[in-house]
Design a protein that fits this description.
Elements lengths: L2 H16 L13 E3 L2 E3 L10 E6 L7 H8 L5 E8 L21 H15 L4 E7 L2 H5 L9 H18 L5 E5 L11 H18 L5 E3 L21 E7 L3 H5 L12 E4 H4 L4 H4 L7 E4 L1 H10 L1 H7 L4 E6 L11 H15 L2 E4 L16 E2 L2 E2 L1 H11 L2
Parallel strand pairs: 3-4, 3-12, 4-5, 5-6, 6-7, 7-8, 8-11, 11-12
Antiparallel strand pairs: 1-2, 9-10, 13-14
Helix pairs in contact: 5-6, 10-11, 12-13
Length: 383
C-alpha cells in the first residue's frame, strides 16, 4: 500500500466510523443553507429536519437513547437550554461574569450533557435561548431598550458560538425564543437579530442563525420584515392552533373537536383585527386544508419573496385531549403537512416538569411514552 493510498484509507475510515466530515475550515460539518432548502453535509442532498424539543433542565440521561428507540427517524432536537434573564431566579442562567459569557456553570453543564446525548445518536441540535424578561417582559429593561443588557446578551452569544463551533451536530443558534415585546417595531427586532447573528457568524460563520417574528413567533407575523442581510439563516415560527382545542384552555374539551368549526377569536385570539378584519365573528372550518392555507399565506409566501428555509419550532397537542375528539387526526394532519410542504419542525415537547397527572404536551411522562403521537410522527417522518 502506498503512502497516498494509506492516507486515503485512513480518511475514509475516520469519516465513516465517526461520522465526522470536516469542511474547508477544519471544523465539523454543518447543515448547508441552499435557498429554501437545507442540505445534509454528509450526502449533499436536501434534508427535512424533524424532531422534538428538549428543555435542558428536564433532560435525563436516557433521553438520547429513548429518542432513537421511540422515534428513529427524528434527526433534530431543539434544545431550550439557555434560560437567560428568563424571570425565574432558581433556574436562570444569567450571571455577572463576562469571562464566562454571563452564564452559570450549571447552565453550561446542562447544555453540554444534552448536546452530547444528541451527538451520540447523530441528531442535529439547535441551541435555543429563552429570555422572557430580556425579550420584552422586563420592559424597559429588555434588549430592545437597555443598551447594557443588549451588550451582555451579545457577549453571551459570542461565548456560546466560540464554545460550540468545534462541536459536531450543531444545527443552529436560535437567538431568542421568543421576542415577547408587543411595543417594539419589527424593524427594531430585526435590527437586534442582525446584530446578534453578525456576532455569532464572526466566530462561527458555518452554523445557521435561527430567528423569528415578534411577538411570540406568531406564524402570521412571519413576513419580509423579518429577513436579514445574511444568507445563513433559518426563519422560524410556532403553530399552536386552535389554542382552545389543543390545550383545553377553556375547560370545554367536550365541545371542541378536530376537524371542526371555530370562531375567529378562538383561533386568532387577540389578532382578529388582522386575521378577520371584515368579520370579527367569522367561523372557519379548521382542518388540514385550513392549516395549509395558513402556511401558504405566511411562511411559504416568505419563500416566494426570498428563498429561505422555514422551521416550525413548536407545535403539539396536550395528552388530555381525547382521541375521540380528533387528537390523532390532528397530529397526523400537522406532521404530514409539514413533511409535504418541506417545513422543518420540532414537536413540543419531549419531557416536561413533574406533575401528578399526564395532562400536558409531553411525549414522555415518567416511564411512559405517548404511543399515539409516536405512531403518527413515525408514519409522517418515515415516508
Amino acid at each position: 500500500m502506498t503512502v497516498d493510498s494509506f492516507f486515503c484509507f485512513l480518511l475514509i475510515f475516520l469519516g465513516t466510523s465517526q461520522a465526522t466530515f470536516l469542511n474547508d475550515t477544519g471544523l465539523p460539518a454543518r447543515l448547508v443553507i441552499d435557498g429554501s432548502q437545507i442540505l445534509d453535509p454528509y450526502t449533499g442532498e436536501p434534508i427535512t429536519l424533524h424532531g422534538v424539543n428538549w428543555w435542558s433542565g428536564y433532560f435525563q440521561s436516557d433521553d438520547g437513547l429513548d429518542l432513537e428507540t421511540q422515534l428513529p427517524d427524528a434527526n433534530l432536537v431543539r434544545l431550550v437550554g439557555i434560560l437567560w434573564d428568563n424571570g425565574n431566579p432558581d433556574t436562570d442562567c444569567r450571571t455577572g461574569d463576562a469571562s464566562q459569557g454571563y452564564l452559570t456553570e450549571t447552565c453550561v453543564k446542562h447544555l453540554d450533557n444534552a448536546i452530547k446525548a444528541a451527538q451520540r445518536h447523530n441528531v442535529w441540535v439547535i441551541i435555543t435561548c429563552r429570555a422572557a424578561e430580556a425579550a420584552g417582559d422586563g420592559y424597559p429593561n429588555d434588549v430592545f431598550h437597555d443598551v447594557e443588557l443588549r451588550a451582555q446578551y451579545e457577549v453571551m452569544w459570542r461565548w456560546v458560538a466560540e464554545r460550540y463551533r468545534t462541536w459536531e451536530w450543531i444545527a443552529g443558534y436560535e437567538i431568542m425564543s421568543e421576542p415577547r415585546t408587543k411595543i417594539t417595531p419589527q424593524e427594531d427586532v430585526t435590527a437586534f437579530y442582525s446584530q446578534m447573528c453578525t456576532a455569532v457568524h464572526e466566530l462561527d460563520p458555518a452554523t445557521p442563525c435561527v430567528v423569528g417574528p415578534a411577538p411570540y413567533y406568531k406564524v402570521w407575523q412571519l413576513d419580509e420584515g423579518v429577513l436579514l442581510d445574511d444568507e445563513n439563516v433559518i426563519y422560524t415560527f410556532d403553530f399552536f392552533l386552535p389554542w382552545s382545542f389543543i390545550t383545553n384552555d377553556t375547560g370545554m374539551v367536550d365541545h371542541r373537536t378536530y376537524p371542526g368549526e371555530y370562531a375567529c377569536n378562538d383561533i386568532f385570539k387577540g389578532w382578529v383585527d388582522k386575521m378577520c378584519p371584515e368579520d370579527h365573528n367569522a367561523i372557519f372550518q379548521v382542518d388540514k386544508d385550513f392549516f395549509l392555507d395558513i402556511l401558504l399565506q405566511y411562511p411559504l409566501r416568505l419563500q416566494e419573496i426570498r428563498p429561505v428555509p422555514v422551521f416550525c419550532n413548536q407545535w403539539g397537542i396536550k395528552h388530555l385531549v381525547p382521541e375521540s375528539h380528533g387528537r390523532r387526526q390532528y397530529v397526523q394532519d400537522m406532521a404530514s403537512l409539514f413533511q409535504e410542504m418541506g417545513v422543518h419542525s420540532t414537536y413540543w415537547i419531549w419531557r416536561s416538569y413533574h406533575k401528578d397527572d399526564w395532562t400536558g404536551f409531553e411525549i414522555v411522562y415518567y416511564g411512559q411514552f405517548d404511543s399515539l403521537v409516536i405512531d403518527e410522527l413515525t408514519r409522517a417522518w418515515s415516508g
